[in-house]
Write a structure and sequence with these properties.
- By secondary structure, the chain is an alpha+beta fold.
- The protein is built from 20 helices and 20 strands.
- The chain starts with a helix and ends in a 7-residue tail after the last helix.
- 32% of the residues are buried.
- 45% of the residues lie in helices and 18% in strands.
- Strands 4, 8, 9, 10, 11, 12 and 13 form a seven-stranded mixed sheet that branches. Strands 14, 15, 16, 17, 18, 19 and 20 form a seven-stranded mixed sheet that branches. The chain has a three-stranded antiparallel sheet with strand order 2-1-3.
- The chain folds into five domains: 85 residues, GIY-YIG endonuclease; 139 residues, no CATH class; 114 residues, Ribonuclease H-like superfamily/Ribonuclease H (Nucleotidyltransferase, domain 5), CATH 3.30.420.10; 144 residues, 2-Layer Sandwich (Nucleotidyltransferase, domain 5), CATH 3.30.420; 50 residues, 5' to 3' exonuclease, C-terminal subdomain (DNA polymerase, domain 1).
Length: 598
């Protein structure tokens, strides 16, 4: 810490970004500063060290990096990108941003297309969402059907020999063969933008004119299509609550604090109508106050390219800094206002958003009560917000693999799932297999900068529990929670207790542990099947000339298992990327020469 303090005092007095890293060079925290010297050195003063969370952060820091910028705005943009890239443990981070789908409209292309993505990027495209509550594939299908933009992924140069089926059924204007030019095509794209931005009345007026024009030139098929679109849009509109005659785009954001996290609710209002509401969870390891959480949420929610409304309403208790409005306005290329919900309509809207977030908080508190039950029953030092469960899968000592799944607050976090090929043992030895997996897992979480689970849950009985405890104790000393859950009698054991823990009267707590254990078992068995199938098919596919690693990967990406590959007909095998009919025929003959059982 003294070395880090000396380094911080030698930093330049200029804007920039700083990154705290551990000994494995994993980023633990990213921050921006108007003065790198003043901001970084503040972590080492007496006041900061009184904060237990700050002290814990600094105790895990091995070294730090800094990047100087020309001004604070550049530092802000860089900080956003680095947080998104590294998702550091100690930053306020949107927990589930990867799981939320967006609609991406590639307006940067001459002939834009639309598709679903989960990774907004600064690539010139427009992103709408996130949409966790809507059936996006149905929306895209509707766009293809009525707005006539292309649904292909090919590069358009207007020189294709022939158009696809979508052109024949009048669901694409065939830019690929030069039927439509870019400027006219972008008028179609404008309709899509109005639709996604909730400007349905403007769109309906436009489509009515198109319908009349089609009718006058006796293109009754086109007129009927426009009529159906108008009907769909009017039906869609009728499902939205109208809260204002003022055609304004607004987002209303409410927050509620949970255990080590903050819940957020966003009420989306487009053109005076309530379109949707979405809920989010932000990890808040350092327990930052809401006035610090708010700007972090804004930076991560309104990433560049995502649609930003003209006004954002938040609680009158929060006083956002001026740079937030400027940053949002720069991204939207027009003025964005952040206003307080202090009276009238804004207050009513905030109450709606707060009601939504308090409902989420109620669910969260119920889950917290279950976790408190587990803490008491297992004698843990902390509430087990993070539970990791471990299982071994083997077939008479062959193809032995292990799995580690991770649940945060009772919800699976799949980006922290890990799988292991057991390498150090031959034959069947469940205890040593568990020990090898645990040793590697503990090393892995340290290298990744992740916190240790509050509870290590082992799929097994007393034997597996004792074997694993030896490994954990070497690394974590006394700072861990450990239990095992045996399948046969569903008994829960903890170290140094001969009898199982009595879960009578605590069924929800037992059910949560069983759910985590079952997920671990599913993940291990699934991985074991993949390894076994690949071994089986690799051994016989050496006979197939032309089937190299690339085509083999394509085969397993297309089919879920070896049995599916065996059951496939020649035509289906030929449809795999990189396969010809000749190769598919040879493969089919080899697979059916003898029924190979993996």
């Amino acid at each position: 810490m003294e070395d880090l303090k000396k380094i911080s005092l030698s930093l330049p007095d200029c804007p920039g970004v700083y990154l705290f890293k551990n000994s494995f060079d994993t980023v633990l925290y990213v921050g921006k500063a108007l003065s790198l010297k003043k901001r970084v050195s503040s972590y080492f003063n007496i006041t900061a060290q009184r904060n237990l969370k700050i002290k814990t952060l600094i105790s895990n820091v091995d070294h730090l990096d800094t990047i100087q910028t020309s001004d604070e705005n550049q530092a802000l943009l860089l900080e956003c990108n680095l947080i998104k890239k590294y998702r550091p443990r100690y930053n306020v981070v949107l927990r589930d941003d990867k799981s939320y789908p967006y609609l991406k409209l590639t307006v940067q292309e001459a002939f834009p297309r639309i598709f679903i993505t989960r990774r907004p990027a600064q690539d010139g495209a427009r992103y709408y969402g996130p949409y966790p509550n809507l059936k996006l594939r149905e929306i895209i299908k509707m766009i293809y059907c009525y707005f006539n933009i292309r649904d292909c992924e090919i590069e358009i140069d207007g020189k294709a020999q022939r158009a696809c089926l979508s052109y024949q059924i009048k669901q694409c204007p065939a830019p690929c063969i030069g039927v439509i030019k870019s400027d006219k095509y972008k008028k179609l794209v404008k309709n899509v933008e109005w639709f996604l931005e909730g400007k349905h009345e403007r769109l309906i007026d436009h489509v009515k004119k198109e319908m009349l024009a089609a009718s006058e030139r006796m293109d009754y098929e086109e007129a009927a299509k426009n009529r159906d679109l108008i009907s769909s849009l009017e039906q869609l509109q009728s499902g939205y609550a109208v809260i204002s005659d003022e055609r304004k785009d607004m987002d209303v954001i409410a927050f509620a604090e949970g255990l080590g996290k903050v819940l957020a609710s966003v009420l989306r209002i487009r053109q005076g109508k309530v379109l949707d509401h979405v809920r989010f969870t932000l990890e808040n390891e350092l327990e930052e106050p809401l006035n610090k959480v708010f700007p972090e949420f804004i930076k991560q929610f309104y990433v560049p390219g995502v649609f930003i409304p003209e006004e954002i309403i938040t609680s009158d208790e929060l006083e956002p800094e001026l740079w937030i409005e400027k940053w949002l306005s720069d991204n939207k290329n027009c003025k964005v206002i952040i206003s307080a919900a202090n009276n009238g309509l804004k207050r009513e809207l905030m109450e709606m958003a707060e009601k939504n977030v308090l409902s989420a908080l109620k669910d969260d508190l119920q889950q917290t009560e279950v976790l408190k039950d587990i803490k008491g029953l297992l004698g843990l030092k902390t509430i087990p917000r993070g539970i990791a469960c471990f299982d071994i899968s083997t077939l008479q000592g062959t193809f032995t693999v292990g799995s580690a799944v991770f649940f945060k607050d009772g919800v699976p976090e799949k980006d922290r799932y890990r799988k292991f090929k057991i390498r150090e043992i031959s034959g069947q030895d469940d205890y040593r297999a568990h020990q090898e997996m645990m040793r590697r897992y503990l090393h892995l979480i340290e290298r990744e900068g992740n916190s240790s689970p509050d509870l290590f849950l082992i799929d097994g009985g007393k034997g597996q529990l004792n074997a694993v405890e030896m490994i954990i104790k070497e690394v974590l000393k006394e700072n861990y929670g450990l239990a095992s859950l045996a399948k046969r009698e569903e008994e829960v054991f903890i170290p140094r207790k001969s009898k199982p823990v009595d879960f009578r009267g605590h069924l929800k707590a037992r059910y949560l542990l069983q759910r985590v254990r079952d997920e671990s078992h599913r993940f291990a068995v699934g991985y074991h099947r993949i390894i076994r199938d690949r071994k089986a098919i690799t051994s016989i596919l050496k006979e197939v000339k032309g089937l190299g690693p690339s085509r083999l990967r394509s085969l397993f990406n297309h089919f879920e298992s070896f049995k599916e590959i065996q059951a496939a007909e020649i035509q289906e095998l030929a449809s795999v990327q990189g396969f010809s009919r000749e190769l598919a025929t040879v493969l089919h003959q080899v697979l059916h020469k003898e029924k190979v059982k993996p």
